Structure formats: C-alpha cells, structure tokens
Amino acid sequence: MTAVSEQNAGPARSSVSVRVRYFAGARAAAGLPEETVTLNRPGGSAPTVSDAIAAALNGRGEKLAEVLPACSFLLDGVAVRDRSTPISEDATLDVLPPFAGG
Question: I want to staple 64 with a disulfide (CB 3.0 to 4.6 A). Which of 58, 60, 84, 88 is the partner?
C-alpha cells in the first residue's frame, strides 16, 4: 500500500459546487427545476447541507423560504436527517416538499 502525501494530492479547493434539484412545490417556489450553487470552504472545512440550503435561498425570494421548512432532503440519493451533514464536491441535493396522495 502506498501512502499519498498532501503535496501529491493537489491543492485544496476553496469552494465546492453542489447541484440542487427542486421537486413539485419547491420547484414552483424556486422558479426553476435545478441550479448549481457554489459553497465556500472556510478554513478548508467541508460545507454542510445547511450551507447549501442557505445558498439556494439567496436571491430566490420568500416563496422558497416559506416552502423549505416543510421539505425533506436527499443528498446523493440518501435521506438527510442532520443538516450539518458535510457535502462533497459535485454532490446532488434534492429538495422534496411534502407529497400528498392516497
């Protein structure tokens, strides 16, 4: 097994790009089906789901702000219960409002 030194690993990125996809009522509130948000990595730390939500809200208006508290989220297809979950580069965050049906 060969260890990789930090010198050979390449420079650390100062930001992370995340694809945010909106579904149903969240899509209507956001006014678009998806977008890519760029999250800063202060001090090299990993941004979180909460950071991505805040970035998605930036410039989207009150409609999305009203919908998001009722939404659930999937990070790369896995349900997110803790919004402090770290997000890696090129992750996909799905925004899912409550669905009705029967």
Answer: 60
